[in-house]
Amino acid sequence: MKRRDFIRKAGLSALGLPFVVKDVSYQTVLKPLFSIDKAAEDKVLVIVRLNGGNDGLNTVIPLDSYDNLALQRPNIILPKSSILKLEDSTIGFHGTMSGMRNMYNDGKLSIIQNVGYENQNRSHFKSSDIWSRGLIGNNGASGWMGRLLDQDYPNFPDDYPNDEFKDPFAISVGSQVSPTCQGLNSNFSMSVIDPSKVSQLSTSVTNFENSTYGDKLKFISLIINQSNSYSLQIEAAINKGNTLSTLYDAENILAKK
Q: What value does the mean pLDDT of the chain take?
């Protein structure tokens, strides 16, 4: 399936892939992923990546398989009385997820359930690699978003930013750029630890010798100049005003970011 077809179809319904647990059956949760009119879209995609382990069977619980789960995991199964049931569904949420339960019932949240790969080796690093690249196997190091951007902006990073595209294509909040945005020639993402404290990098090299060393140095200089230009755009956006949502606690780290 082509990437564009996948993204389009993923926006129409949730996807279900097989997850092997003895005698536990699953369903695909059919809810629209996005119901916002295209005309109202601001064309900004926000991806929140939660690193670390998560007990999926105690997050999204298949209630129609509850008895079998109780046999498989008697010491950690959630009591049925604490599970939040979803409308018109045989699955439930962990008791602390009342906000997400309300979003789901209002059609503002979809679930992509039981995502995995065949013959998995249970490696966290392998799973993270597949997650970032959207590929199984040794088919290059680019990320799924990077390949999409490569298709539309094949010359990047040469000649960017320019008058038409002044802003960075992606921003990674943290100390590392996102592997999801890794393109063929460069990463489309700019790493920013604190968007309100961006700074300019210095470079004094203007002449590059005709050698492999010179080519590498020229590329580094290009990225530095590009980063400086993008930093000015980020700084200008930050200085336009405070857009922190009032729906969350003022000390909520995710809301701040």
A: 78
Token pair recorded at residue 165: 């595209």
What does the DSSP assignment read for the chain?
Answer: --HHHHHHHHTTS--B-----TT---------S--S-GGG-----------S---GGGTEEEGGGHHHHHHH-TTTPPPGGG-EEPTT-SEEE-TT-HHHHHHHHTT-----BS---TT----HHHHHHHHHHS-SSSS-S--HHHHHHHHH-TTTTTT-S-SS--S-SEEEESSS--GGGB-SSSBSEEEES-GGG------------SSHHHHHHHHHHHHHHHHHHHHHHHHHHHTT-----TTS-TT-HHHH-
Contacts by 51-59, CB closer than 8 A, 24 or more apart: 53/124, 57/21, 58/94, 59/93, 59/94, 59/97
Residue 128's identity, in one-letter code, is S
pLDDT of residue 59: 92
With a CB cutoff of 8 Å and minimum separation 6, the contacts of 80 are: 63, 66
Which one has a higher pLDDT value, 233 or 115?
Answer: 233
254 or 12: which leads in pLDDT: 254
Residue spans of the domains in the chain: they are 3-116, 128-238
Q: What does pTM read for this prediction?
A: 0.65
Residue 201: its pLDDT value, please?
73
